[in-house]
Amino acid sequence: MTTPHVSPRLVALGAAAVLTVGAGACGSGEDEITLGLITKQEENPFFVTMREVAEDVADENDVNLLTAAGKSDVDNASQVRALAEMTRDGAEGIMIVPARSRAIVPAIETAREAGVIVVALDTPTQPRSAVEALYATNNRRAGNLIGRYAKAKAEEDGIEPRIAMLDLAPGISVGELRHEGFLTGFGIDDGDPEIVGSAYAQGDEDNARATMARLLDEDPGINIVYTINEPTAFGAIDALKEAGRDMDDVIIVSIDGSCDAIKNGVRTGEIDATSQQYPENMAREGLEAVAEAVRGGPSPSGFLDTGVELITADPVEGVESEDEAFGVRNCWGD
Amino acid sequence: MEAAAPAVRPEPRKARLVYPKLAVPFILLILCFAAWGVAANLTDVIVGVFRSIFDMSNAQSALVQFAYYGAYFTLAIPAAFINRRFGYKVGVLAGLGLAAVGGLLFLPASEALVYGFFLAALFVLAAGMSILETSANPFVIAMGPEESATQRLNLAQAFNPVGANIGVLLGAVLILPELTSEAEKTILSPAELRQSQEDDLALVLGPYLGIACVLILIWLLIAFRKMETPPEAKHEEEGASRSGALGRLWHNRHYRYGVAAQFFNVGAQVCAWTFTILYAQDIVGVPAEDSGWYLQASLLLFLVARFVMTWLLGIFRPTRLLLIMASLGVGFCLVAMFSLDMVGLIAVVLISLSLSLMFPTIYGVALQGLGEDTKFGAAGLVMAILGGALMPLVQGLLMDELDAAKAFAVPGICLAFVACYALFDLRTRRGGGGELVAEGAH
User: Fold this and answer.
1) Higher pLDDT residue, B108 or A44?
2) B 48-107 residues inside an 8 A Cβ radius of A
């Protein structure tokens, strides 16, 4: 029996190829570290996207990722407990989306005293210095984009602005920044005659429907509606339709960029424009920065803008925007 | 209808598949059939990839298909000339060599980061593939006894869809999941953005360099192997350049309309496959890393449906089945246009079901009864591949003006033309009889 002759050179080349592929398959080769991600809740697709992206990025960066979430948007107790448990379980860095910006600070301080690097995602702590850094949407810019769009669209359509503002709630910085941004973008101030109605809808669709109906009772001529988020926009749209308004005569602008709103609001033209924010950028940038710091790199600091784009199916001249296809490709949720 | 090859004479024993000493060359040629399948269908993925990397319009990105199928069209006649003048082996080597050069040209193109360079590289690659395809088909036929020619050609052509699926798989696994997301690009600095372009283009570079390496390997194996086949000129000169053929063909409505139907069929096919991934991403919101699987499903469906259609063609009159499937295809396009969700995406995938029988059926019906003009007529039908270069551009323009869903009106209209051709054939009596003609590789 003869043995087939195999060139040693060929064997070496083959082995090198296998080793290269094998090394590539085993990740980046760095020591594994443990990090934590705490979101507000698991129902909201915004936070689901954030967690899923964080898990993918963790895999790519040899990070053992611990995750936890509260039971609602205001569940501080669960977040305090998660911070303590993750610190005990050896997390060297934690990313948190604070449910209660002020109430969470003592628990963060305890974790930081134990040597844990803590950064905030999406929502700032109060004070901001309670964490190393904040990775979030520039909410003022998000509001500014839809303000500029609404003004240009009103001019294009030749309508006299009669604006209704459906805000979040008193004293919440996200809502205040978006509100201010819209006014700046539109070129008006609080109290100007263009604003014919303003109310807090709590970011909730049902509240928004009732609030918008009330504002329409007060002024049936409302033709521009600013909404703090997309559930609010859908509530306002319902109220406008119930009032018999032709949606082509009303400009509705919003902020968020969920798949539901892009597909069922922007694409149909009922929401004229929305500022889309990117939870995937918050998760990826936050995790990579914290992992780098834990491995001896520079510590994250300050505010990192995670991006915002104006999405509309009806672009106007002078305001940069992306189309609804871009919005669908980059939206979050189903 | 693919079974409608010339009648086989009874033989005392089964004819061998290939002549002695040609088994290895035959296997090498089979690799060529797979290679052009890989290259052709990788471009279906690349259209969306370039749109993302270069941040350009759909019409601009569809230039990828214009370059690819435009090269196929342009090189059809020169390829035939090379074969007649120098023989099949030289034709195969010229095709392999040119295609390999095209693959290697991706290297300087990715250094320059200029879209036009990639289009030039694709053009060269496709030009080589065109010559390769034109040479390999008759070469395979000449590699064995005439009695087993159809079997040999079918076996070789069976590897074309295998290659096509590998092409899409390469894109779905190696490129799409690794691309920089558009959301991430919104926060990159200009320098970081350029780096991300380079990284993403490196993903494209890999598969094309791989294709080039495989082609060079096949080239070497064929170039340094002695291959003797029976005189080739005899095969080619039969019926070639007969005077008056063009006039006769032009006055044959079944043929004339058949060329138009083939133009629209190839247009519909390339449109459907080019824009499946973009429909999934733009309309349904399927993540880039998952979107390639819908194109993969389309090609697998196309492959399976071809076998089913071959069986059905034995039951139904070919043009009746063509009419049914083309009408079904129009229906799928309408669903894709107006159902902006997963149902619409499934309809896009199902278009491949209706496409599966079209090329061979139109080919056979259009050439039926052409007699001595068959070979000249076949060239016209192959050149109808121009539809694959032009129609995606139209769909891309419509996508830019409307959206990815409404733009599916383009393959819908193309398939409606095919349905009209089938109806024309069903309602019109032919001047002569004649058998259906076996098809080429598409």
Assistant:
1) B108
2) none
- HEC per residue, A191-250: CCCCEEEEEECCCCHHHHHHHHHHHHHHCCCCCEEEECCHHHHHHHHHHHHHCCCCHHHC
Q: Name the closest residue on chain A to residue B289, using Cα atoms.
A: A329
Domains with residue ranges and CATH for chain B: 15-237 (1.20.1250.20), 242-428 (1.20.1250.20)
Given a contact cutoff of 8 angstroms between Cβ atoms, the answer to whether B261 and B414 are in contact is no
Residue B324, number of CB atoms within 10 A of its CB? 16
Q: Is A284 on the interface with B (CB under 8 A)?
A: yes
B51 Cβ contact list (under 8 Å, min separation 6): B57, B58, B60, B61, B278
Q: CB A330 to CB B183 under 8 A? A: yes
How much is the ipTM here?
0.82
* Dihedral angle over CA of B84, B86, B88, B92, nearest 10: -120
Domain annotation for chain A: domains and CATH numbers: 33-137+279-300 (3.40.50.2300), 139-277+309-329 (3.40.50.2300)
Q: State how far residue B214 is from chain A, nearest Cα, in angstroms.
A: 16
**DSSP-assigned letter for residue B172:** I
Are A307 and B183 inside 8 Å of each other by CB? Answer: yes
Q: How far is B285 from chain A (nearest CA, A)?
A: 5
* d(C-alpha B95, C-alpha B75), whole Å: 10
Residue A292 one-letter amino acid:
E
| Mean residue pLDDT across chain A | 89
Q: Which of A125-129, A265-269, B150-154 has the lowest mean pLDDT?
A: B150-154
- Output the DSSP codes for B4-17: -PPPPPP-SSPPPS
Q: Coil, helix or strand for A258? A: strand
- Which of A284, A306, A331 is nearest residue B285 as measured by Cβ atoms? A331
**Cα gap A47→A40, rounded to integer Å:** 7
Q: Tens of pLDDT along A279-329? A: 999 999 999 999 999 999 999 999 999 999 999 999 999 999 999 999 999
Residues constituting chain B: 442
